[in-house]
Amino acid sequence: MVSPAFDPRTLDRRLDALAREPFRARFHLRGRELATARLKGPATLRWHAYDLTARRLAPARPHKDGRQTPYRGHPVFVAQHATATCCRTCLERRHGIPKGRELTRTEHVYVVDVICRWIERETAGHGFSGPDPCRADGDHEIS
Question: Whole-angstrom Cα distance, residue 128 to residue 10?
């Protein structure tokens, strides 16, 4: 059985509530971040989210906490601001995960699930028209 915290409906309700906050509502995937999300796909983005949050959010006292997450440059960064998973203060206030201690494995996976669900919702309505030019060329590598 899936834990209620990881249930997509529960995550959607949490994301809907966060989207009603004026600051959080400003964030959307556009341009390069949207293209990156579509090209990399959910599995790669999940790994990126796990890795980035492991280094920038999971420690008990992250380096430059409160300023460690850029606003742009990667879909995960945009998602972190939209979902209040950008710093330990936001994580405590909006998700009830206390700061001052390392994230547990369950909490870390929850944070990644929140980020990835937000990215999934953002990319759902942004399909590309026509074939992906990178996929059409069999010799082309996507890094």
Answer: 29
